[in-house]
Write a structure and sequence with these properties.
It is an enzyme of class 2 (transferase). It comes from Methylophaga aminisulfidivorans MP. The protein folds into two domains: about 1-130, Aspartate receptor, ligand-binding domain (Four Helix Bundle (Hemerythrin (Met), subunit A)), CATH 1.20.120; about 145-290, Reverse transcriptase/Diguanylate cyclase domain (Alpha-Beta Plaits, 2-Layer Sandwich), CATH 3.30.70.270. It is about 60% helix and about 10% strand. The chain has helices at about 1-35, 50, 55-60, 65-70, 70-95, 100-130, 145-160, 175-180, 180-200, 225-240, 270-285; strands spanning about 165-170, 205-210, 215-220, 240-245, 250, 255-260, 290. A five-stranded mixed beta sheet has the order 2-3-1-6-7, sandwiched between helices. The protein is elongated, with a radius of gyration of 24 Å. The two termini are about 30 Å apart. Guanosine-5'-triphosphate binds near residues 136, 170, 189, 211 and 287.
C-alpha cells in the first residue's frame, strides 16, 4: 500500500514537471502567434483547448484515485481551464486581425500566473508528502504534523469552521506480533491504514503517531460528524478479515478511538492531550470503542 501511494505521488509529481515544461513551450508558441502572427495551433481555438494540451489529456483521462478530489488538484484544473480560455480569446482577435486590448492581455497574464502558482503549489505539497510518508503504511510521519495542525488550528480560529481530531490505537496489538509474527503485525498496520483511507476524505490528514497509534485531523468537521466517522472506521476495522498464512486463515483486530474538537479556544497540544485521553477512556471502557471528549 505504502509503495503504491509513494509511486502514485511520484507519478503525479512527474506529470506536474512535464506539464510545467510543456506549458513553457506552449507559451513561447503562443507569443509567436500573438507577436509574429504565425498561424495558431487549431487546438488552441477550440472551446475544449484545455483538454487537448499534453497536461489536459492526462488530467481528464488519468484516474489517480489518490488525487482526484484533492483540493489543490481541483483548483489547478480550474486555473488551467481558465488560462486556455483566456488564450483562446487572444488568438481569436489575432486571427481576425484585431488589436488585443491591454486589459484582456493583462487578464490572460493573470490567469497564466495563477495556473503556474497552482502547479507549483501542487508540486510542493506532493513533494512534501512523499518526503514525510511512513515507509510501512503510507500514512504521514509526525515530521510535518505539528506545523499542519497549527495551520488547521489557525484556520479554524479565523473561519470559525470546526475541525476535529481522532486518535486511534489498535487493541492488544502486541498479541498479534507475539502470536502471528512481526510481519503479520506489519500487514495489520498496512490494512488498518487502507481502511482509514477508504473512510477519510482527501483533505483529512492521517499521521502515524506511534507504533500502532494514528492521529487523524478532519478539517471542517463537527464533533458529531467526527464521532460518526470514527464509528465507521471502528466498525470497518473490526469486520476486516486479515489473511495471515498461505492456507488463507484469517485474524481480526479492533481499535480504540478517541475524538475531540480542534477548538480554537485551546492549544493544539491541549487538543492532542484531550484526544489521547479520550482514546484511553475507550481502552479502559473495554476497547473496540469510540469515546468523545
Ligand atoms: N509489527 C509491528 N509491530 C509494531 C510496530 N510498531 C510498534 N509495534 C508493536 O506494537 C505493540 C504495542 O503494544 P502495546 O503498547 O503493549 O499495546 P497493545 O498490545 O496494543 O495493547 P493496548 O494498546 O493496551 O490494547 C508492541 O508490541 C510493539 O512492538 C511496527 O511497525 N510493526
Amino acid at each position: 500500500m505504502a509503495a503504491v501511494i509513494h509511486q502514485q505521488l511520484r507519478f503525479v509529481i512527474d506529470e506536474i514537471d512535464k506539464a510545467i515544461e510543456s506549458h513553457q513551450k506552449w507559451y513561447q508558441d503562443l507569443l509567436r502567434v500573438l507577436v509574429s502572427r504565425v498561424p495558431p495551433d487549431e487546438k488552441d481555438l477550440r472551446n475544449d483547448a484545455y483538454k487537448l494540451c499534453e497536461f489536459g489529456e492526462w488530467f481528464y483521462t488519468s484516474h489517480v484515485e489518490l488525487i482526484q478530489d484533492h483540493p489543490t488538484f481541483v483548483s489547478l484544473g480550474h486555473a488551467h481551464e481558465n488560462m486556455h480560455k483566456s488564450a483562446k480569446q487572444l488568438i481569436e482577435l489575432v486571427v481576425s486581425e484585431q488589436a488585443i486590448p491591454v486589459t484582456m492581455f493583462d487578464e490572460f497574464n493573470h490567469d497564466l500566473e495563477k495556473m503556474r502558482t497552482q502547479f507549483q503549489a501542487l508540486r510542493h505539497e506532493f513533494a512534501n508528502l512523499v518526503q514525510n510518508l511512513d515507509p510501512l503504511t503510507g500514512a504521514q510521519t509526525r515530521a510535518g504534523m505539528q506545523a499542519e495542525l497549527n495551520k488547521e488550528h489557525a484556520m479554524a480560529k479565523r473561519s470559525l469552521q470546526p475541525s476535529a481530531l481522532a486518535m486511534l490505537d489498535l487493541d492488544h496489538f502486541k498479541q498479534v506480533n507475539d502470536n502471528y509474527g512481526h510481519s503479520v503485525g506489519d500487514d495489520v498496520l498496512i490494512k488498518t491504514v487502507a481502511c482509514l483511507q477508504q473512510v477519510l476524505r482527501p483533505y483529512d490528514q492521517l499521521y502515524r503517531y506511534g507504533g500502532e497509534e494514528f492521529l487523524i485531523c478532519m478539517p471542517n468537521t463537527t464533533l458529531e460528524q467526527a464521532e460518526r466517522v470514527a464509528e465507521r472506521i471502528r466498525s470497518m476495522i473490526a469486520q476486516q478479515q486479515i489473511i495471515y498464512d498461505k492456507e488463507g486463515n484469517t485474524l481480526q483486530v479492533t481499535a480504540s478511538i478517541g475524538v475531540t474538537s480542534l477548538d480554537p479556544a485551546y492549544s493544539v497540544d491541549d487538543a492532542i492531550n484531550k484526544v489521547d485521553e479520550a482514546m484511553y477512556q475507550a481502552k479502559t471502557a473495554g476497547r473496540n470503542l469510540v469515546k468523545v471528549r
